[in-house]
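Sample entry (746 residues):
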Amino acid sequence: MKAGSRSRPASQSSKQTQPSIQTQKLFEQGIALHQSGQLLQAKALYAQVLRLAPKHFDALHLLGVIAYQQHEAALALALIDRAIGLLPQHPSAHSNRGNALRLLNRLEEALQSYDRAIELRPDFAEAMNNRGLVLNQLKRRELALQSYDQALAINPGFADAHNNRGLVLQDMKEHAKAISSFGDAIAIKPLEAAFYFNCGNVLHEIGQYAAAVMHYEQAIQLNAAYAQAMNNLGLTLQQLQQQEKALQCYQKAATIQPDYADAIHNAGSLLLGGKQYVAAIDQLVKAFALQPTTPFLQGTLQHSRMNVCDWAGFDAMQKLLVQGLAHQETVSPPFVTLGLSSSGQAQHNASKIWVRSKLASPLVLPPITPYSAHERIKIGYFSADFHDHATAYLMAELFELHDKTRFELIAFSFGPDKLDTMRQRLLKSFDQFFDVRLNTDLQVTQLARQLEIDISIDLKGYTTDSRAPIFALRAAPVQVNYLGYPGTMGADFMDYLVADHTLIPPQSRVHYTEKIAYLPHSYQVNDAKRQISDRVFTREEVGLPPTGFVFCCFNNNYKITPDTFDGWMRILQAVPDSVLWLLADNPTAAQNLSKEAELRGVSAKRLVFAPRLGLAEHLARHRLADLFIDTLPCNAHTTASDALWVGLPVLTCMGEAFASRVAASLLQAVGLPELITESQPAYETLAIELASHPAQLAAIKLKLERNRLTTPLFDTASYAKHLEALYAQMHECSQKGLPVEHLNAA
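Predicted structure, serialized as tokens:
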């Protein structure tokens, strides 16, 4: 996001043998053209001077300077070395030699040249500034600061040195000092767009988004073609939830600089978040064509295509992503990887790479230590989903059943401020409820610390609208990854992951950064008060044929892989007159799935698409289905418990990673392990068997009906006690200063 640090070519006339009048006149004309930026014309005149006077130091030196300015570093070095051969004691030549070496990335040699220039001229501020640039590149930041300070002691009005000093301070996370340095640079040169841009970057980094917007806008006002500033303005507006304006900024940046892959990628990602899948794919394909190594672009593009069930090149892309993750490359965001690979190692790699790229250098706050024991353990739940959302539907009763004599519940909501029925229900469940949508990550963390939260619970992980930086800053002495993200966050700032032994058997712990806090049954909480509408749907009104077996899967479209769909089509072919009932998420996906069915010899008429409904009615229409068939590598989660809650059996195929074992966890907890398979052939065989033997399926449905309210899956009161036992253990270990270890609730 930074504007490049800038070195300054040094110039100083030398005392040479008096040239001829003609030579001197040509040289002076060259100097004038050079100073006005007409480099090609100046270069021609300097060359003409050298033809008349081959040992003209200044012409040779300044030809080297022009070569440097034109990024011809090797030529610049050769020319300046020839000039130094004529006049070895010339400080500016040594400084400019350092510039050429820096451009060639020969940093230690560059440092020696700057040191020589300063030795020859102790008040050489430009050389000290340029020396600071090299020291910063060498990660010797304290020495770089000293060099800038020396330059500024000589020349307090040296704007570039103030700017470069600010860049080093930004790298050192000395944000207030960095802003001050950029402010000094701006005060000296108020028309320099790069200074506003750099200051805007620091303000964005610390979450002062409104101030960052002002600085980016000022940079753009000074330089209307400043594509980077336009892109970063978009990033900041996106943080302020001004999505339309952000998109316009990305589009303007790409108009200014048509090969600006990052801006095009940002536009595509924003469109993806807004479920404008076709437009998102168009942008992401353009970005990929320009720069396929753009961080996380490959995975984002593949996820966009998965949302519309466009599987062109799926196998090749999936292979590339898994290989890239194995080589620690920034190819795929963690959430995207859940739907592309069942490998626990691949998902662990994706999370660790994300942390290293996005969260490796959080804002510095003092280390956090356990607080003195409170009357009640303070639990902070952090989420964007405290409203009419799937997570809230799962958790609402848990919040109500928490033992308020032992635990104080505090909500930190950074999602939409919707005063819907669910939000009103949740507001009554918490001791305190904070709407922190407009607060920065730093402010939210500071609030959590002021409230002395003992255990902070991240209900988002790396899902949409997550705010992992709050946890990177350490909102509480104990931090827990729970429910919202089905996998590891790959971060040392998360202490525990709540799971169960089906999800993470002991041999799989190696793929998780967190220690595992084991619940005795399923990790997934459920609300036993979830209402099912009394409405009785008919097959005709939902588009189902009057007869025939109904397989269904209401998972999101991105979870449907070609392998899963191949299996489904083989199942339909083996079960005459059967249909597959799917979620109608977007028209493009429905069209593509219909086309894919026909390609596999199955009539598109055997696919039926269900539009989205309110939860109570959505649950009620499940009664028209006969069997829910799951997806792999990313299982049904809430959709599986929805089906089980209404008495619809769920058939799953269990993979290796957390997200691939969720449905198995739910089936174990509801007493239906016979619906868990471990291979694609076994999955297909059992689906066909159940569809072909009505009595066998009826027995399973009867068992589910009997188990529904007696087994652990929907026993929220028992679940709450087990979860609280884990919280109590976490808190006790923290209070005693014990290392974080795996825990068991029972």
